[in-house]
Design a protein that fits this description.
Layout (H helix, E strand, L loop, with lengths): L22 H16 L4 E3 L9 E4 L7 E11 L3 E8 L2 E11 L1 E7 L5 E7 H14 L10 H16 L1
Antiparallel strand pairs: 1-2, 2-3, 3-6, 4-5, 6-7
């Protein structure tokens, strides 16, 4: 699978629900996990590989790889944390982003089983980042305008190098 990068219109579109969740969905999730690992990322959303479905995969540090299909953010904490983020679709560029410290999400796994997860720290940050992709939002959209322009200029310069 090829990860699409900033400038591709698909990254700005809202993804459609996955229906039904079946063997093809499980295979897609498996291929996305493999692509995420090969790209040395901690998360990958289906729109990043040109598939406009509400599905993302994550694999953070000591945790297991996780699949989120048709996720819903149920709650986020009022406490926020500023932390550096990057994105496979905006390679070699990072910026500090403010996000809620914790999140509660409902979703389905690759076997079509519903689950709820409430978590904080890095796992919450990656979930929120990948969920944004399903909404057509990139981490740079969460930056102040001047900072966003600087990050985009840095990305464009690195793409030409």
């Amino acid at each position: 699978m090829e990860v699409i990068i900033l400038g591709d219109d698909l990254l700005r579109q809202k993804a459609e629900p996955v229906k039904p969740i079946n063997a093809a969905t499980a295979k897609l999730a498996e291929e996305m996990i493999e692509t995420m690992h090969q790209s040395k990322g901690v998360g990958l959303a289906a729109p990043q590989v040109g598939i406009m479905k509400r599905l993302f995969v994550i694999h953070v540090d000591d945790d297991i790889p996780r699949v989120f299909i048709n996720p819903s953010i149920v709650a986020t904490s009022q406490e926020t944390v500023k932390q550096e983020e990057g994105c496979l679709s905006i390679p070699r560029v990072w910026a500090e982003v403010i996000r809620p410290e914790s999140v509660r999400v409902q979703a389905w796994n690759e076997k079509g089983r519903p689950f709820t997860i409430e978590t904080g720290g890095m796992l919450a940050r990656v979930i929120l980042h990948e969920y944004d992709h399903l909404e057509g939002t990139l981490f740079i959209d969460r930056l102040p305008e001047l900072k966003r322009q600087k990050v985009i200029a840095k990305f464009e310069k690195k793409q030409q190098a």
